[in-house]
Design goal:
Layout (H helix, E strand, L loop, with lengths): L3 E7 L6 H9 L6 E8 L5 H6 L6 E6 L4 H11 L4 E4 L5 E2 L3 H11 L5 E9 L5 E2 L11 E3 L18 E4 L2 H5 L12 H12 L2 E12 L23 H6 L1 H20 L3 H10 L7 H7 L3 H16 L9
Helix pairs in contact: 8-9
């Protein structure tokens, strides 16, 4: 039985999946299986996967049912005690599974294990991440995972592993949330409310950014977003969680304003506590959609000059 089961959902990533898989097979820690769930791809992704001849590779093709269903199918098939997730266009450095395994042995009480990660922009520029209140050389249980995730998220999908038995306690990914609209955040919150989260700030994963956001704002109206009201009772007694959630509510509100969906914008806007968001974000929420689109274009241009801004700080 492998120690790790690595789950990779695949949907139309034929140009990326080979690099992603190569990064898995270059791992220093080698006791793993790789489960590829092809979620009804219409490109040549399957052919790219099947070029790999490694007995640790498990491939399953399905009809298109969404990323949550693909991950849940992988969880059902997994044989490992630790389940690691990787998106089909991200990259692991060779130390990734080794880093997570060390965390698992040193902190057996942790339900979720997380490593440091960095963003790689289309021009090759690398954007470092940091976690609020966490030292650069941290290795241990995070005191307040939500308070430390207000700028960059500690729990990022391609840099975490979860103990297999945790899913029996918290359930699997919510299949009603589609197209990367919060299904992973929903899962990590559920885990973090029940279990300690262990973190190593050693960078071992890379978020590979495209020329624009992976799911563009023009697709917003086709996505089923998390309503972010699942944890209302917990938010009343956990102010860090409430602030964390309000940043997402603000982000979802802005996305829907730019997409012209005033009803959903109003839903998220009225749901958030304005005291929990930065002044900059309050200004953006009050800005007309046309100007928001211009500012988004400016933000993309600034990225090309290695100037990175967001709504979260």
């Amino acid at each position: 039985m492998p120690v790790f089961s690595v789950i990779i959902p695949l949907y139309n990533k034929e140009k990326n999946i080979a690099d992603t898989l190569q990064s898995v097979f270059r791992q220093v820690y080698t006791d793993f299986e790789v489960i590829i769930i092809n979620d009804g791809s219409t490109d040549a992704g399957e052919e790219e996967v099947l070029k790999f001849k490694d007995n640790r590779l498990v491939y399953k093709g399905t009809v298109n049912r969404g990323i949550s269903k693909a991950r849940n199918t992988g969880i059902e098939m997994a044989k490992g005690n630790l389940i690691a997730f990787l998106d089909a266009d991200d990259i692991w450095l060779p130390n990734h599974l080794e880093t997570l395994y060390s965390l698992s042995t040193n902190h057996p009480q942790a339900g979720l294990l997380a490593s440091g990660y960095e963003f790689v922009h289309p021009d090759g520029a690398v954007q470092k991440t940091f976690f609020t209140g966490i030292p650069e050389d941290f290795n241990g249980i995070v005191p307040d995972v939500f308070a430390s995730s207000l700028t960059y998220r500690i729990m990022w999908t391609s840099a975490v592993a979860v103990r297999a038995d945790v899913f029996k306690a918290v359930g699997v990914f919510d299949e009603s949330i589609t197209l990367g609209a919060g299904e992973d955040t929903d899962m990590w919150i559920r885990i973090a409310l029940k279990y300690p989260v262990a973190l190593s700030t050693i960078v071992s994963a890379q978020y590979i950014l495209g020329g624009v956001n992976r799911v563009s704002h023009t697709q917003t109206l086709n996505r089923s977003f998390a309503t972010l009201d699942k944890f209302t009772s917990e938010e009343k007694s956990n102010k860090s969680l409430q602030r964390f959630m309000d940043l997402y509510r603000a982000s979802y509100a802005l996305k829907h304003k730019m997409a012209g969906d005033s009803k959903t914008f109003t839903f998220y806007y009225k749901s958030l506590n304005k005291a929990n968001i930065p002044f900059k974000t309050k200004v953006l929420l009050a800005t007309p959609a046309a100007i928001l689109k211009m500012l988004f274009t400016l933000k993309q241009a600034l990225k090309r000059k290695k100037i990175y801004i967001d709504i979260y700080n």
